[in-house]
Design brief:
With about 1450 residues, the chain is an alpha/beta fold. Helix content is about 50%, strand content about 10%. It has a 6-stranded mixed sheet with strand order 7-8-9-4-10-11, with helices on both faces. Strands 22-23-24-19-25-26 form a 6-stranded mixed sheet, sandwiched between helices. Strands 3-1-5-6 form a 4-stranded antiparallel sheet, with helices on both faces. α18 packs across α23, α23 runs antiparallel to α24 and α46 packs across α48.
């Protein structure tokens, strides 16, 4: 773990403290408690004390602080109770009893859940109505509802834990330890049924959950925190919601003082005071180290001051001494505060075990021991199990329940020793321990019935802790407004500290505003500025409203934290929804204000204070409304894809029915109701009315009919008596048009509705979406996760045969001893090669210079041996392994590394295997597929596919993964995934195997099974080098050699270990460190070199002992011997390549894997298909069967313009997928499995079939319902449109992948999308017609791919399309007396196109603006003859994106190590 700082450093690079500062200091913790309690005692006495007494007590405090006064627990507890009794504060003591506690989970035995595929999803979509009908029937007639199969996870178990006691829960993985803790902690939602009875100080579980939820808490194994908060802020938040009211604090102590005192105590007790101002961090955000983060989780839970605590493997990631110190601190707290503590721990040492009062052992959900820890070992030995004195008791106890590990006493066997879970349970129930437990349980229950003092004191204490005004029935300490306040402060801090997000959002928002402002720059009050005013208002409003789309995924990210904190009863879920809105206002208000200011004044909208602030109010209100709208979906949906589907159901309608594209009076009668339930419509109408009520236009230029074409001077320049103004709302004979009339006639708007309708309805929508958020999050919370079900891929004929063979072999192996099996197993003989390293040094750049992490490390690994690499946290174990495996890409490595006596070649990375600590795999592949992928691409092409397949089957057997061969990787548990990581590396038949902490995060049994398996590999000729974290004494003996490092990367020892570690112990004993017989040698030698809390043994540095030793000289001699014996070459020059297989072979298997992944990701693929179909269908319904009128021509253009939204849909979905795939590629690239070019090409090829399918669906639902293909291009033209749409899809995919390739994380990629889409859409020559586009934007017009999309599709559709105006579309005017229409307007019609409907009339001439579709697009700089050129330019853009993606994949990995 050297590449992530050890427990003693923060990731910000704070200096490493001295070893004695590193761990939890119990003496200091007790002194801290003592000091705190003394302060509390003093405060309680201060009410009537004299100044002289006060100075005396002050002196005592100082003495306590200096540590001169010895800590007396008895005296301390007495003073504590006195202080609270004098203040009249009741204690909270909660004993826990459980009787016949039984837990059932969903999913029966042998019940397999199969992965859904795209094909199944498409089929099931058509049966949706039937499914809805079926579920409705089941609700009405419950008898027909199918019963879900259930499995018993925890069989009936009983016990009792009194206040002030600690219980250790032990068992192998899958034995139900976590389930037991969750059941005790009242976390019942994840299970089908919980039977039996759990009582807390006599209070039932139901009452506890309703009124005292926060008094029983569960600390899960994973650390879930808000990464951008500091440690102090995280704790302050928890404390601010759990500060007791005045009656629950000592007199004279304020809330702030209480919080500060408790916070400092927790930080000091867990020794994380130095991290108070460091971010908590996570995988993406640098923060405290893993061990420190675990302690933050513990501190946060303790801040709730709950009385029943359940810790699930809370020492994971802590080294042995830190874990011991934490459990000691827990012991102190339990004793002093009278808490009731349950804990499950993996690989717990003897020192930890001895601190518990009770131990509960579970085997497959059955209780096989519950009683005193010091009698547990003897109990199992008496049953007939072999005594193993060197094994720690927790490992021994769980070992007795593990068929692979347990050993029977001499002369005993399974026949006469209870060994199945059922037999062990019966043996326990017959034992005296069970009788004593039942007896004490009955007595305690009776005592609780008769003497209710504990229960009453508990109820009273909880009541007194509540803040004034909080309901007695509420389980919360703070009232609702207090919760909202605390959450709003936290959210505010979070946003303020996420600098990158702030800077990016502000920058992009300002740039967008500048682009919109510049493209509609300085609009004039002329007829030209009338329609474009509506456009700029619509563009500004829509960009702002749809910017909130990003709220959906954010709502899903914080769910695990919400689940944890609401289970601690810190706050109601509803408070989060309100606090989110409140905390967001200061940031969004400023951002939107600047955005509006730029657009409003750059585009020259009505320049008055009232006009601007009304505009800003409407835009900001629609922003908040849409934010609430998208957050509602984020809260409601289980995953992003379903939310994405729902949102796209609404977005097109909101845009289409805002009243801008289609005025309300022209909407289809059966769809116009959408306009009235659309918040965007009210905002747009409000902004339009606000603008146009303040202005009037001069009618000029293109709005006058007839007018002079170029070279003609027949008509008056202004508006003459025989000319008309074509602007909506113009009055004959007047050249000024009032804005009110314009919006009234053109859009059917009434400006007096501004405040009385539009504002009030928009405000109503805002409040409605706040309410929906509150109700959904409170009553229908979607926490997600929580289920640990293994998901399988369906078998085909090949895998069916293979699985049957695996099960046959497995059955044949049962009942045979390890020795028989190893004789029978001719597993695979590995051809390992010796590996030597001499004088290895490693320097890394740090601020202000370089730091040396490894110093003169020597050693070797031979085939058939296992070498352990050990050291304290921060000694450079992982660093050393990374350097030896050639995985470092920063820093300077020096020294000599030889494989088989030769310098390392370019094929070293693929010839050796490195199983990393993080198990990163393609989640949608099965176990068999993952291993085959590795075998196909890493074994040489000379080996046939059949041989590789057979080899993978052998590996599956060796790894004992037979039952999981078809399981999907993402659903595997920690241990199975760890085995798979090793299997994937072994599939390459490496000459050398490196493993980084393979036992980390596993329990004692899993660790033992894994090392047992590695031993088997070594015995078959494999060379293994492996870092290992705190192994048990049994585990360390499995290795042949040990390389031990101390801080600074110095070697302490390299050599043999020997049976019972006698060689290693002898070496240390020679230098003054004698290992006692009952101590684990692995832990002892770390203590001896000063790795833990204890000082180094001896006055000389251990590295100096090593350099002077005979063993060191032996190592140098052995390295020379290996070099001389392997240096002979066979004389044949071998071709060496970076990759094992050729390019096309790599591409074949990468594409095959990608195809399988997408086929098994129906949410991802089907969502895209659904969205394409839906948008196309809904746009077509609005423009159903278009005719040949002038307005229909405009609608054809709008219908085609919707095509430009497709890249936005594809990009928003594709970027996260691409970035996740890149993480897997980075891991695989370090082993040189395939090249970055193959990765990028494979990603694109995988997407293509689905993109073409989406394109065809979109085209079918667009072209035929709208009635395209009536022009000169005919039906052939519609197929040309299909080609364009497929190229648009290709462009979207390639652009999305390019943005993914240049983005470091999923949070950053989506920030680019709105900007890119807006710029491309604005400058394509349609939104702002090409003739009116300012000349300084013409370069962008040429550069936009959307220009080519619109040009190709418009020219194809409109070329040769005959236009026939409808009666209300003609422009009427009267010719001068004595002239026909043709005589008066003939030159005008000839110059500008269109036609006169009645050329020979002398009054009421009817002019139609267009005669043929070409007249519409020719002024827009579009030519029908250029359509093929345009479509291939669009294709060229895709090719460019694709090439850029390949280059970015090659050079931008965002992975430093």
């Amino acid at each position: 773990m050297a590449d992530t700082p050890g427990d003693d450093r923060t990731l910000r690079g704070d200096a490493t403290p001295l070893p004695d500062q590193h761990h939890v200091d119990i003496a200091a913790a007790e002194a801290q408690f003592n000091e705190l309690q003394r302060v509390l005692s003093i405060r309680s006495q201060q009410a009537g004390s004299e100044p002289t007494e006060r100075s005396a007590t002050d002196h005592d405090i100082e003495k306590g602080e200096k540590g001169e006064q010895p800590f007396d627990l008895r005296a301390y507890l007495a003073s504590s109770n006195d202080a609270y009794q004098k203040a009249g504060i009741a204690h909270k003591h909660v004993g826990v009893t459980w009787e016949n506690l039984q837990v059932e989970g969903i999913g029966g035995a042998g019940h397999k859940i199969y992965v859904r595929t795209f094909g199944e999803d498409v089929l099931s979509f058509w049966f949706t109505p039937l499914r809805i009908l079926k579920s409705a029937l089941e609700r009405v007639v419950p008898a027909i509802r199918p019963q879900l199969p259930v499995t018993t996870i925890l069989h009936p178990s009983s016990g009792l834990l009194k206040p002030g006691q600690m219980c250790l829960v032990l068992g192998c993985p899958g034995s139900g330890c976590t389930t037991f803790l969750k059941a005790i902690a009242n976390e019942r939602a994840d299970y089908a049924h919980i039977g039996g009875e759990v009582r807390y100080a006599g209070i039932s579980a139901e009452e506890m959950a309703k009124y005292y939820k926060g008094e029983v808490v569960y600390n899960e194994e994973d650390d879930r925190h808000i990464a951008t908060l500091t440690v102090a802020q995280t704790l302050n938040f928890a404390l601010s919601l759990k500060t007791p009211g005045p009656k629950g604090r000592l007199p004279g102590m304020s809330r702030e003082e209480f919080n500060e005192t408790v916070r400092n105590m927790l930080l000091r007790m867990l020794n994380i005071s130095h991290t108070a101002n460091t971010y908590v961090g996570d995988e993406f955000v640098r923060g405290v180290s893993g061990g420190e983060r675990k302690r933050v989780s513990i501190a946060e839970m303790m801040a709730t001051r709950a009385r029943v605590l359940c810790f699930d493997n809370s020492t994971r990631g802590l080294d042995a001494s830190t874990a011991l110190d934490f459990i000691k601190a827990l012991r102190v707290m339990t004793d002093i505060l009278g808490q009731t503590t349950f804990a499950t721990l993996y690989q717990a040492g003897e020192g930890i075990y001895e601190l518990f009062d009770k131990v509960l052992v579970l085997d497959k959900g059955r209780q096989v021991y519950f009683g005193p820890p010091f009698e547990a070992r003897a109990y199992f030995e008496n049953l007939g199990y072999k005594s193993l004195p060197r094994q720690s008791t927790p490992d021994y106890l769980t070992g007795c329940t593990d068929p692979n590990e347990r050993q029977f006493a001499p002369g005993r066997s399974e026949a006469d020793v209870p060994s199945t879970p059922e037999e062990l349970e019966q043996a326990f129930l017959r034992s005296r321990y069970a009788a004593e437990m039942r007896d004490s349980l009955e007595k305690y229950k009776q005592e609780m019935e008769i003497d209710r003092s504990d229960q009453e004191a508990f109820r009273k204490a909880v009541l007194e802790e509540k803040k004034r005004g909080v309901s007695k029935k509420s389980p919360y300490t703070q009232g609702f407004t207090g919760q909202v306040r605390a959450l709003a402060i936290r959210q505010f801090q979070m946003r303020l500290q996420d600098r990158f997000q702030l800077i990016t959002s502000y920058s992009l928002s300002t740039i967008l505003a500048l682009v919109i402002g510049a493209s509609y720059y300085n609009l004039q009050l002329t007829s030209q500025g009338a329609f474009t005013r509506g456009s700029v208002i619509f563009a500004g409003l829509l960009t702002c409203a749809l910017d909130t789309f990003g709220e959906m995924p954010v709502q899903m990210l914080g769910r695990p934290i919400l689940k944890k904190q609401t289970s601690y009863a810190l706050y109601r879920p509803a408070a989060v929804a309100i606090a989110n809105t409140l905390s967001d206002v200061p940031f969004s208000a400023v951002r939107i204000f600047v955005y509006n200011l730029i657009i409003y004044f750059m585009s020259n909208l009505s320049r008055s204070a009232g006009g601007f602030f009304t505009y800003h109010l409407f835009i900001y209100l629609v922003f908040l409304t849409m934010q609430g709208f998208f957050r509602t979906f984020g809260i409601m949906c289980t995953n992003f894809d379903s939310a994405f589907r729902l949102a796209t159901f609404f977005i097109p309608n909101m845009i289409q029915y805002a009243g801008y594209m289609i005025p309300v009076f022209q909407m289809k009668r059966w769809l116009f109701w959408i306009y009235y339930i659309n918040p965007v419509a009210y905002a747009w109408v409000g902004c339009m009315e606000n603008e146009f009520m303040r202005i009037s236009f001069a009618c000029d230029g293109t709005a006058i009919v007839p007018r002079n074409p170029p070279g003609v001077n027949k008509y008056p320049e202004g508006l003459g008596p025989n000319q008309v103004c074509t602007l909506f709302g113009s009055v004959p004979g007047e050249d000024i048009v009032s804005g009110r009339n314009y919006v009234s006639f053109g859009y059917g708007l009434n400006v007096s509705d501004l405040w009385r309708r539009n504002f009030l309805v928009l405000l109503g929508f805002f409040l409605l979406f706040q309410l929906t958020q509150v109700l959904l999050i409170e009553y229908f919370p979607q926490y997600g996760g929580g289920s640990s079900v293994t998901i399988f891929a369906k078998e085909d004929s090949e895998t069916k045969k293979l699985n049957a063979r695996l099960q046959e072999h497995k059955a044949a192996r049962k009942g045979k001893s390890d020795r028989e099996l190893s004789e029978k197993d001719t597993v695979t003989q590995f051809h390992g090669k010796p590996f030597t390293w001499e004088k290895v040094n490693y320097h890394v750049p740090v601020p202000g210079g370089v730091r040396r992490l490894l110093h003169d490390v020597y050693g070797y690994v031979k085939p058939g041996t296992m070498t352990a690499l050990m050291g304290a946290s921060g000694a450079g174990k992982t660093t050393c392994l990374d350097v030896l495996a050639q995985r470092k890409n920063i820093g300077v490595v020096s020294g000599t590394l030889l494989l088989d006596g030769k310098p390392l070649g370019i094929d070293f990375a693929r010839n050796t295997a490195y199983a990393e600590q993080m198990d990163v795999h393609e989640g949608s592949a099965t176990v068999r597929e993952a291993m085959r992928f590795s075998a196909y691409l890493r074994q040489p092409p000379e080996v046939s596919k059949e041989e590789k397949d057979q080899y993978v089957e052998d590996m599956i057997e060796v790894l004992e993964l037979q039952d999981l061969a078809d399981a999907l990787v993402f659903s595997l548990n920690v241990e199975a995934r760890k085995r798979l990581t090793i299997g994937v590396e072994l599939a390459s038949r490496p000459s050398l195997l490196f493993l980084d902490e393979p036992t980390s995060g596993l329990d004692g049994q899993s660790a033992w099974n894994l090392v047992r398996f590695l031993r088997k590999l070594a015995d078959n000729g494999q060379a293994i080098l492996c870092t290992i974290h705190q192994p048990s004494s049994m585990l360390i003996q499995t290795f042949d050699k040990l390389l031990l490092l101390e801080r600074g990367g110095e070697t302490v020892y390299f050599g043999d270990i020997g049976p019972d570690c006698y060689i290693l112990r002898d070496y240390f004993a020679r230098h003054g460190a004698h290992c006692p017989p009952n101590v684990n040698p692995a832990e002892f030698m770390l203590d001896a070199i000063g790795a833990g809390l204890t000082p180094r043994i001896g006055d000389r540095d251990w590295k100096d002992h090593w350099l002077d030793s005979k063993e060191f000289q032996d190592v140098l001699a052995e390295i020379e011997k290996i070099k001389s014996s392997t240096s002979g070459d066979d004389g044949q020059p071998q071709k060496v390549t970076v990759y094992a297989t050729p390019f096309w072979n790599q591409l074949r298997w990468v594409v095959t894997r990608n195809n399988a992944k997408l086929w098994r990701s129906p949410d991802y693929v089907f969502s895209r298909l659904f969205v394409h179909a839906f948008i196309s269908l809904f746009v077509s319904l609005s423009f159903l069967q278009l005719g040949h009128g002038a307005r229909d021509l405009q609608y054809r253009v709008f219908g085609i313009f919707w095509t430009t939204i497709l890249p936005a849909i594809v990009m928003s979905q594709l970027e996260p997928m691409w970035i996740l795939s890149r993480r897997i590629f980075i891991r695989e690239a370090s082993s040189r499995i395939y090249s970055p070019y193959v990765f990028a090409i494979g990603q694109l090829i995988g997407e293509m079939p689905y993109s073409i399918l989406c394109g065809i669906v979109y085209w079918v639902l667009m072209v035929y319902p709208m009635g395209f293909g009536d022009g000169a291009a005919g039906v052939g033209g519609t197929f040309f449109q299909l080609l364009v749409i497929i190229f648009v899809e290709l462009f979207g995919v390639s652009l999305g992948q390019f943005i993914g390739a240049i983005s470091p994380s999923m949070q950053i990629a989506p920030l680019f999308n709105p900007f890119i889409i807006l710029v491309l859409g604005t400058f394509c020559g349609v939104t702002i017609p090409y003739p009116t586009l300012p000349s300084y934007w013409h370069w962008l017009y040429q550069l936009s791919p959307y220009t080519r999309i619109m040009a190709a599709m418009l020219s194809t559709e409109l070329h040769g399309l005959t236009i026939t105006c409808k009666a209300d579309e003609f422009i009427p005017f009267n010719p001068p007396a004595g002239q026909t229409c043709q005589q008066w307007a003939g030159e005008f019609v000839t110059g500008f196109g269109g036609y006169l409907d009645n050329p020979n009339d002398t009054t009421a001439c009817r002019y139609c603006q267009y005669q043929v579709g070409d007249e519409f697009f020719l002024p827009l700089n579009i030519r029908y003859d250029d359509r093929w050129r345009d479509v291939w330019i669009l294709f060229a853009f895709s090719v460019f994106n694709f090439a850029a993606t390949i280059v970015a994949s090659r050079f931008l990995r965002y992975a430093k190590r």
